[in-house]
Amino acid sequence: MITRTQAQYQRDMFDAMPKCYEEGRISRNIIERQAKELADLDAAIKDVFDQYFIDTATWGLANWERVCGIVTDENKPLDQRRSAIKAKIRGLGPVTKEMIQRVVSAWFGEEIDVIERFADYEVIIEFLFDKAVGKNFTDIIDTLRELLPAHLNFGFAPSLKEYVSINERATVNMRRYHRIGEFRIGMSFTKYQNEVELT
């Protein structure tokens, strides 16, 4: 939705009148006040219109959360609240691999993979490590627990889609990450890290 500024309204109003109104102090003041009111009205209409879309909603996110059955927490950043709403909406219907991908992509973007381990009754969500920085894993875990059947366990595996180019010497980091059940408060994401230099 395109909004117009006070100056644009003012210019259009003066263009529609004889030039003498633009030069008069009283008529100019009246037009300036009316143009400001129209610009403010435009901005208010745009603000209300923005609340109809998850990506642009601000104060309207509480309504989206109420509809989706999510507890509103005003202290959370807007992007985390939006991700939770998108995940909830994408999680409607039967639980399939594609549906899990749609739900988790609300947080990690489209570059994720869902690995099904039927023998272990487990689903592994593989994502690019860079996409996990700053994400609220509590919301992701709660959403997956609500979404997946009770007999399925789930885990996260940062993806190793990193490119290596060796010119003369290269350093390779080998990392192992904690599984969900191993996490404790204050623990780092990585279990251990090894650094090897290749020549």
Can you give a write-up of this model?
- With 199 residues, the chain is of the alpha+beta class.
- The protein has two domains: 6-92, no CATH class; 97-159, Alpha-Beta Plaits (2-Layer Sandwich), CATH 3.30.70.
- It has seven helices and five strands.
- The longest helix is centred in the N-terminal third of the chain and has 26 residues, at 25-50.
- The protein is elongated and about 85 Å long.
- The N and C termini lie far apart (57 Å).
- It holds the Pfam family Phage_Mu_Gp48.
- This is YmfQ family protein.
Question: What's this, in brief?
Answer:
The chain is 43% helix and 19% strand. The protein contains 7 helices and 5 strands. It has helices at residues 6-15, 19-23, 25-50, 61-68, 78-90, 97-108, 137-147, and strands at residues 112-117, 122-128, 153-159, 170-177, 190-198.
**C-alpha termini separation:** 57 Å
State mean pLDDT (0 to 100 scale): 82
Strand content: 15-25%
Helix count from the secondary structure assignment: 7
As a percent range, the share of helical residues equals 40-55%
Evaluate the radius of gyration. Answer: 26 Å
Q: Biggest sheet: strands side by side, in what order? A: 1-2-3
How many strands, which pairing sense, and closed or not: the largest β-sheet?
A: 3 strands, mixed
What string, H for helix and E for strand, traces the elements in order?
HHHHHHEEHEEE
Low-confidence stretches: none
Pfam families: Phage_Mu_Gp48
Protein name: YmfQ family protein
Organism: Aneurinibacillus aneurinilyticus
